[in-house]
Every structure is written in C-alpha cells, then in structure tokens.
Amino acid sequence: MADNKHYISIGLLINMSGYVKYKHDKRFEKLDKPIECEGGKELIERLMQLFEVNTRIELGDLIGVTAGTLSTWTTRNTTPYELLIRVHLLTGWPMEYLCFGVGDLSKIKGKTNSHFSERANEVAPPTLSYERGVLQVYTIDNGHLAQYEKIEATVNLLQYCNVRGNENDLIVKDGFDLLFINTRENQVNQGRYLFKVNQTHQLGMMKLYPDGKIYLLEEEERYLVDESVTQIVGKVAATLKQTPISLIRPRGYKART
C-alpha cells in the first residue's frame, strides 16, 4: 500500500510540474481564445495563388464550394478552418502560410501542379520551427491494407486527432473520408474499430456489452465477435471528412487510368 502511495505521489508531482510549466508560459495565455487568422478576400486570393487559378469559379470548383459561399466569406471575413486543415494535410502547405500568409514556401513552389497522390511518399524537410509527424495512409483492398500515400502534419494536430506521427498509428482512406486509427486502443469499449478476421481487415462499429462479450453492430442487428480469430488493430479516433469533389485538382490534372 505504501508503494502505491509512493507511485501516486510521483504521478501527481509530474502532473503538477507540467501544469506549472504551461500555466506560466505566456504563449498559452490565450489558448482558449480564437486565433485571428486572415479570412475573406485575403484568404481567397491566397488560395487562388496557391492553386494557380484565375477565377473564383475555378477555385470554388476545386475546393467544392459555390461562388455564393465565397462571396459570403468575403462579406463576413470568414476563415474556413476545417478546409484549411484539409488543404494542409493533403498538400503539406504550412498552416502558418495558409492562415497568416507567412512562412517559407520555396521548398514546394513548382510542385503545385502535381496531384498530391503523385507525391504520396515525398516528405519535404520542415521549413518552419514546429514539430511534425508523418502517418501512412492505407486503403482496404480485398481485405488487405494497401499503402496509399503519406501525410505529414504538426504534432499538435495529430495529438488533437488522438494519434501520433512516426509511430504505429495509421490512417485508413474510407471513400472520401480519412480515418485516424489509434492502435493503442485495441481493447473494445464502444466505437468504430479497424479489425481483422483471419488476416482480412474490416471496419465496423463494436460495443462491449454488460454480458462481457463484444458485438459487431450493423444497422439493427448485432453479431457476436469471436475473439479467438478477431484481432483489434485500433480504434477510429478521429475522422477527416472531404467533399466528393476532389480537393486537390489543379489545372491540367488528369485522373490516372
């Protein structure tokens, strides 16, 4: 019992040191306040420059919004944060540049005419002072995980999605969505999981019921999971939704055949 108290005390001390450290860091004083990013006309012009388009109609078609939406962004000086996150993840363009127009884009200039999947495994050296992580994106092809591309993002963004870069966590492309899989969560409680049965990978909703058994939930039905042949790879910790219109489709891009 004394040993347990000793460990608990150490844990509290560690937590307290972190609290004190960040509590007195002035950078975190406004963490609960919205960031004043550039929006509206300035942001639209920046995106037009990045995507190398000449009109708002072309830009709207690329990012899946109407001309009316772009007009509303201008009138209300709107910053579409989720869209900027998608652009950042799919292109590697720095969030600092997308949000504020600052940062070094020299490393990626000249590459904006290639579809992001053509640069799937290219990870450029960091140009800014933030930590970053890299996650492999997979598709499920006939029950097997097939490498699709790599995505890099700031460590803070990955932690927000409850995954870690350069670790065992991964992303599964499910239609137009990107599913961030936390492989540390491999004990079923409730949620959507990536699992495999006899080496065949699947995605599905699972729940641990009061009878101590795990069930796969499909619509109104539930199926008992045979844990002797079912391996839980990880839990879907976050989902990044994308519009059906391809987010990255610069002029001159032709779909692969």
What does this structure look like?
It contains 7 helices and 9 strands. The chain is α+β, with helices and mostly antiparallel strands. Strands 2-1-3-4-9-5-6-7-8 form a 9-stranded mixed sheet. Strand 7 and strand 8 (221-224) form a beta hairpin. The protein is globular and about 55 Å long. It starts with a helix and ends in a 17-residue tail after the last strand. Mean pLDDT is 77; it is low at 1-16, 109-129 and 244-257.
Question: Descriptors for this entry?
Answer:
single chain; 7 helices; alpha+beta; 257 residues; 27% strand; disordered C terminus; 29% helix
Topology:
Elements: H1 2-23, H2 40-51, H3 56-63, H4 67-76, H5 81-91, H6 95-100, E1 132-141, E2 144-154, H7 155-160, E3 170-174, E4 177-182, E5 190-197, E6 200-208, E7 214-218, E8 221-224, E9 230-240
